[in-house]
UniProtKB/TrEMBL annotation:
<dbReference type="GO" id="GO:0046872">
    <property type="term" value="F:metal ion binding"/>
</dbReference>
<feature type="binding site">
    <location>
        <position position="183"/>
    </location>
    <ligand>
        <name>Zn(2+)</name>
    </ligand>
</feature>
<comment type="similarity">
    <text>Belongs to the sirtuin family.</text>
</comment>
<dbReference type="InterPro" id="IPR026590">
    <property type="entry name" value="Ssirtuin_cat_dom"/>
</dbReference>
<dbReference type="GO" id="GO:0017136">
    <property type="term" value="F:histone deacetylase activity, NAD-dependent"/>
</dbReference>
<feature type="binding site">
    <location>
        <position position="181"/>
    </location>
    <ligand>
        <name>Zn(2+)</name>
    </ligand>
</feature>
<dbReference type="GO" id="GO:0070403">
    <property type="term" value="F:NAD+ binding"/>
</dbReference>
<keyword id="KW-0808">Transferase</keyword>
<keyword id="KW-0520">NAD</keyword>
<dbReference type="InterPro" id="IPR029035">
    <property type="entry name" value="DHS-like_NAD/FAD-binding_dom"/>
</dbReference>
<feature type="active site" description="Proton acceptor">
    <location>
        <position position="114"/>
    </location>
</feature>
<keyword id="KW-0479">Metal-binding</keyword>
<feature type="binding site">
    <location>
        <position position="122"/>
    </location>
    <ligand>
        <name>Zn(2+)</name>
    </ligand>
</feature>
<dbReference type="InterPro" id="IPR026591">
    <property type="entry name" value="Sirtuin_cat_small_dom_sf"/>
</dbReference>
<feature type="domain" description="Deacetylase sirtuin-type">
    <location>
        <begin position="1"/>
        <end position="223"/>
    </location>
</feature>
<dbReference type="InterPro" id="IPR003000">
    <property type="entry name" value="Sirtuin"/>
</dbReference>
<keyword id="KW-0862">Zinc</keyword>
């Protein structure tokens, strides 16, 4: 039925969520093995802004998880959607995911509602930094934290929001040096994603409504 629907349509908008990336080794939040079911509690926007220890905790865990997260490859559904886009069946992809796997699959018209982990943003000057550059800074500043732990894509320590529960021994989060922007010494560098308790950018929300209003029909992918 779905194939027949897609064959009969063109110019669709497809909305995707976390389920499409689980085959790529990135856990979701609410699935059988999701982060919520495992008791994981992501940092909130207010905690990140107000508590330096929470920022140190976030970036320490993110530094350890980034090598795994960044190596994730598109799943078959990502690739299938890209092929449908190339055939003109899909004009837009709207995703709640922050893993950039639609981009890795080659999709062109992708709106990332909740941002992208491949970037960091300075909350003072709004400058954008590539996450790979941030990783280099973190590893240079925190050599004692460079992971000797062995993590895999199916490790239950891996979180849906791109961090991991480190196997702490002598290290404490208060010793971790966070990334900085060159605009000022006390500027807060944040992952360029919508944290829990944070609002989506109005421009992004407006763009999503504009897309939905322009296409003949939309398809919600729960995979």
């Amino acid at each position: 039925m779905l194939r027949a629907f897609i064959r009969s349509k063109s110019g669709l908008a497809v909305i995707t969520g976390a389920g499409i990336s689980t085959e790529s080794g990135i856990p979701d939040y609410r699935g059988p093995k999701g982060s919520y079911r495992l008791g994981h509690k992501p940092v909130t926007y207010q905690e990140f802004l107000s508590n330096p220890i929470q920022r140190q905790r976030y970036w320490a865990r993110s530094m350890k998880a980034w090598p795994i997260f960044s190596e994730a490859r598109p799943s078959l559904p990502h690739i299938y959607l890209q092929k449908l886009e190339s055939l003109g069946k899909i004009h837009y992809l709207i995703t709640q995911n922050v893993d950039s796997l639609h981009h890795k699959a080659g999709s062109q018209n992708v709106l990332e509602l909740h941002g992208k982990l491949r970037e960091g943003i300075c909350l003072s000057c709004k400058g954008i930094r590539d996450r790979t550059d941030i990783q280099s800074e973190l590893e240079k500043k925190n050599p004692a934290w460079i992971s000797k732990d062995s993590y895999t894509h199916d490790d239950p320590s891996l979180r849906a929001d791109g961090d991991v529960e480190p196997q702490l021994q002598n290290q404490q989060y208060s010793t971790f040096l966070v990334p900085q922007c060159t605009c000022q010494s006390n500027a807060i560098m944040k992952p360029n994603v919508v944290l829990f308790g944070e609002n989506c950018a109005k421009l992004v929300v407006d763009e999503s409504f504009k897309i939905i209003s322009q296409v003949p029909q939309s398809l919600l992918s729960s995979h």
